[in-house]
């Protein structure tokens, strides 16, 4: 059952690169063990989300209190709307960037791993360099 889920979600119907057979097997094993375990980090999801995957306390409401620079990363085909992050950014007192990665859905790190890694490395360099304004966005990524 888990294998059918990972094949359908991350196989031929994936937004970006299709997983190799080995990657698919590893992901299936991971999903199985996360689901079969008596307790895991995945259990927190029932406390974070209401029925239908709606957040109980949306981050949007607390973003103005955040004290660290923040980068939101979305896939171009993500079902989550990046415009919510744009609204949250308006009230934030810390630097905030929104990056959209092509050929990626909600699991952009699986759909387009190289694009996701580029976005993460860009975000880290931008906030760790002495002159972050001279850091340009990698090719293919879009700032929102």
TrEMBL record:
> What InterPro entries does this protein map onto?
AB_hydrolase_fold
Q: Which Gene3D superfamilies match?
A: alpha/beta hydrolase (3.40.50.1820)
Q: Which domain of life is it from?
A: Eukaryota
What family does this chain come from, according to its entry? Belongs to the peptidase S33 family. ABHD4/ABHD5 subfamily.
Protein name per Swiss-Prot or TrEMBL? 1-acylglycerol-3-phosphate O-acyltransferase
List the source organism: Stylosanthes scabra
Classification of source organism: Eukaryota, Viridiplantae, Streptophyta, Embryophyta, Tracheophyta
């Amino acid at each position: 059952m888990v294998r059918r889920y990972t094949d359908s979600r991350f196989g031929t119907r994936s937004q970006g690169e299709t997983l190799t057979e080995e990657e698919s097997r590893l992901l299936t094993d991971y999903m199985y063990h996360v689901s079969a375990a008596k307790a895991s980090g995945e259990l927190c999801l029932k406390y974070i989300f209401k029925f239908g995957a709606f957040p109980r306390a949306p981050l949007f409401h607390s973003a103005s209190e955040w004290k660290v620079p923040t980068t939101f990363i979305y896939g171009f085909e993500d079902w989550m709307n990046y415009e919510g992050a744009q609204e949250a950014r308006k009230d934030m007192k810390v630097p905030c960037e929104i990056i959209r990665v092509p050929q990626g859905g909600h699991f952009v790190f699986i759909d387009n791993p190289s694009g996701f890694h580029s976005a993460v490395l860009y975000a880290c360099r931008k906030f760790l360099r002495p002159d972050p304004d001279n850091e340009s966005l990698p090719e293919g990524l879009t700032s929102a």
